[in-house]
């Protein structure tokens, strides 16, 4: 059992107020994140409405197999994260560290697979810019699709990298017994962030990989 | 920095003398010290932006291009706009006075997240360094609006560092806004219900909501412009079928509400100052409080009025026009309520009050000319002319900066424990008011006569009005230098202020000046509405 006493910061009256404030702060941060991604989703909608064929064409150049595997991995990592939060709440120290490490492994696996996908795009000349391989009447608009694809998935990947980094810190704190039933706010907030990143991918996957009925 | 306030005769321990040395400032988590760090940074940026303004006005003294050429002139107005908007106006009142006063006014010991608060200042400073890097290595010439495709493909100036600067500063204000919302929700003193909050708090709450919802959108938009430049891809590039108008939509979705980020906190200050110096309850408290939220909400629905001639559909333009008119309603609610508060008040004309009265007049002119611009037909005639320039300077300078100066004077005794020289301050306030009107009123006429903005030369028939404007700018410059000098002077030689030199209501006045590090010896208990002035008078006499 982790029973380390956590000191309430001077600006708060008690631990409950501190927990409530931190949770509200995290939710507000996620609101800013939604709007941050929101700009990109708006661009996606505007361009897809304007160039539906080019978007379908671009989507068919994506690797559906790897995308699907990554979706499963990421949903699995959300599960291990949720189990980790629960382990912290009930004070199961070893399980907490284990689930956090598992989440890190799954998150990293996602990033590695994403890396292979990106590498394939470079090989096939599907990266927007002067060397873009697809010509023909739809060429420029497919390039636009790949601009959006890379902007959205790269921003998502950056969030994953940050998430894995923070997870590592929290796992280290957890292994030193920093969390328990009396104090688990950082684990819980980490969970909120991780689920958010997962949910973004749940939207990205169908919008990018599954359009045009294949 | 304002560390000179220390004085060996100070017996009481407060936030300024509790600790000395550069480390105690750079690593502080005290919201009051962070406010002063911000005060130093934004004052520096204000004077830098002011220098660009003065060079612009000097260039426009004569019709020909005398001092600078076209390219330099483009950079001057761009950097004036970027610095004044992103690095001064947006952080000004929230990061300085809001930071200092939000915990004090609600009876809290600090903001909810002191470390994030300090981080926000460092992020701001890093952003400001990027901005200064751009300024001092050749400048940027896109206009503060960074319109694509000029900013993404055509301009050969320092667009990317400027954008990185604006991006970072955006995140610093997100941190500030997030801190305010959580603090106001969770850390109010016992008895301090929502409708007992000072209107300054309501204004900052509404401002924070705008910051939280708007800033991420400008961040991603400017980020995409930077990415487009660096990687030579084309998200807004018409050659690929990209749409530059989309950039404008995304840009104004934040940048119109940003105007309310500047003006709402100022309105909060005016409510505090007007009640204090008319010794009266505020008229229509709940209407003023809710009108702040209404402005925050409506502010997100009117961005298209910046794009009436950009090629958006005429039906969109009609709707944006109607909604823009609607913003006048909550704005007018405030102006009428302030005026009603003055009615039969026991008015005295201390410097903050002079600024506040100036604010009401100038904001009214700025707001009413905003209605001219919201009218589709008239906007086609005056868009991109000096009429627009005059209009938004009446809001941003005549409104936001007048309010900022009112607030700085009003709470200076609380911040520093010293009184500023009253007569000098009143004279400076009048100089600012006169200089401001002489600078910008002629620009309404110039714009109506057809002088376009952003040109370094103009036809000779516009010269008289331009000379008036330049003369006014010089006077305005003096008006801004004076407070800088006498406020610094007062740090050492100003008379000592008691806890409550204005006999004002509000929790911040019930603790010593300067306040102790944790603000209150014991958490105050709130038992009455704000601005209970007549009651207090009756009790005292």
Note down, in words, how this protein is organized:
The complex is a heterodimer of chains A (214) and B (541). Chain A is an all-alpha fold. Chain A has a single domain, classed as Cytochrome c oxidase, subunit III, four-helix bundle (Four Helix Bundle (Hemerythrin (Met), subunit A)), CATH 1.20.120.80. In chain A, 77% of the residues lie in helices and 0% in strands. Chain A has helices at residues 15-50, 52-60, 64-90, 93-123, 139-175, 185-209. In chain A, helix 3 runs antiparallel to helix 6 (185-209). The longest helix of chain A is centred in the C-terminal third of the chain and has 37 residues, at 139-175. Chain A is elongated. The model of chain A has no long low-confidence stretch (mean pLDDT 92). Chain B has a single domain (27-540), classed as Cytochrome c oxidase-like, subunit I domain (Cytochrome C Oxidase, Chain A), CATH 1.20.210. Chain B is mainly α. The longest helix of chain B has 37 residues, at 70-106. Chain B starts with 21 loop residues before the first helix and ends with a helix. In chain B, helix 2 (31-59) runs parallel beside helix 4 and helix 3 packs parallel to helix 13. Chain B has helices spanning 22-26, 31-59, 70-106, 114-136, 150-154, 159-186, 199-231, 244-278, 285-299, 314-342, 351-374, 376-382, 386-416, 422-449, 463-493, 533-540. Chain B is built from 16 helices and no strands. The chains are: A mainly alpha (214), B mainly alpha (541).
